[in-house]
Amino acid sequence: MILKLFNSRSNLPIRFLISQRNYAKAPAAGGAKGLGKKLGGKIGGAAVEKKVMPVVTDPHRLVNYCCGSNYFVEGEDVKIKPDNEYPDWLWTLHTGKPKTLEELDPNTKQYWRKLRSDGLKRNLLMLKLKKF
């Protein structure tokens, strides 16, 4: 037995009424009113193609320049200097995985920040697991 629900006013099944209400209308082609003018172009217009950057394969250029460092329209990439022209602290920077709490010195600010962030993460996880 199929049970159909009907609207009392129009004698149409309710599923037809819901589809006619247009609760979630698609946005107009221009988006929000006046928004296209503020951004300086059409929002719903043709898609902009991505600009393909050429890959540098010249070994001399790869060794002597930091390729991709120039983001201006004109100019060239930054030239790599000899190691003695850079500050000493640059060569002591930690570039590997972040240190664990046990590896850090308790007398540093970095240790206490890591301890606090680990505690916040643990408390957030416990709140997610907690049932009402």
Summarize this entry quickly.
This protein has 132 residues and is mainly alpha-helical. It is 30% helix and 3% strand. The two termini are 40 Å apart.
Q: What is the helical fraction, as a range of percent?
A: 25-40%
General shape: flat
Number of strands: 2
> Order of strands in the sheet with the most strands?
1-2
**Strand content of the residues, in percent?**
under 5%
Low-confidence stretches: 34-41
SS element count, helices: 4
What summary fits the major beta sheet? 2 strands, antiparallel
Structural class: mainly alpha
Radius of gyration: 31 Å
Straight-line distance between termini = 40 Å
Can you put this structure into words, describing what you see?
With 132 residues, the chain is mainly α. It has 4 helices and 2 strands, in the order αααββα. The protein has helices spanning 14-20, 35-39, 59-64, 109-129, and strands at 65-66, 78-79. A two-stranded antiparallel ribbon has the order 1-2. The model is unreliable at 34-41 (pLDDT under 50).
Indicate the topology.
Blueprint: H1 14-20, H2 35-39, H3 59-64, E1 65-66, E2 78-79, H4 109-129
Antiparallel strand pairs: 1-2
Jot down its keywords:
single chain; 132 residues; mainly alpha; 4 helices; 2 strands
